[in-house]
C-alpha cells in the first residue's frame, strides 16, 4: 500500500468565562447611544433607507383603508 498523507487538525473552542460576561451588558447599555450617534452622523444614508420604507408602508395602509371604505356601501 501507498503512504497515506494525513493532515493534523487543530480544534479551537472559544468560550466566554463567567468573569467576562459583562460584554453583553455593556453592549445593551451603549446600544441607544451608538444607534443615535450612527443616525446623526449618517442621516442622509438613514433617510434614503427609511423614507422609501415608511412611504411604502403609509401608502399600503392608505390603500387598505380606501378599499375598506369602497366596499362599505
Automatic annotation (TrEMBL):
Keywords: Electron transport, Membrane, Mitochondrion, Mitochondrion inner membrane, Respiratory chain, Transmembrane, Transmembrane helix, Transport. This is Cytochrome b-c1 complex subunit 8. Its main location: mitochondrion. SUPFAM superfamilies: Ubiquinone-binding protein QP-C of cytochrome bc1 complex (Ubiquinol-cytochrome c reductase). Transmembrane segments: none annotated. It comes from the Eukaryota. It is a single-pass membrane protein. InterPro entries: Cyt_b-c1_8-plants (IPR020101), Cyt_bc1_su8_sf (IPR036642). GO terms for cellular component: mitochondrial inner membrane. Belongs to the UQCRQ/QCR8 family. The keyword Protease does not apply. It is found in: Mitochondrion inner membrane.
Amino acid at each position: 500500500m501507498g503512504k497515506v498523507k494525513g493532515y493534523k487538525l487543530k480544534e479551537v473552542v472559544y468560550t466566554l468565562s463567567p468573569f467576562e460576561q459583562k460584554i453583553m451588558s455593556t453592549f445593551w447599555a451603549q446600544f441607544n447611544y451608538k444607534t443615535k450617534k450612527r443616525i446623526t452622523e449618517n442621516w442622509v444614508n438613514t433617510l434614503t433607507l427609511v423614507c422609501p420604507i415608511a412611504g411604502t408602508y403609509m401608502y399600503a395602509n392608505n390603500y387598505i383603508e380606501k378599499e375598506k371604505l369602497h366596499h362599505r356601501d
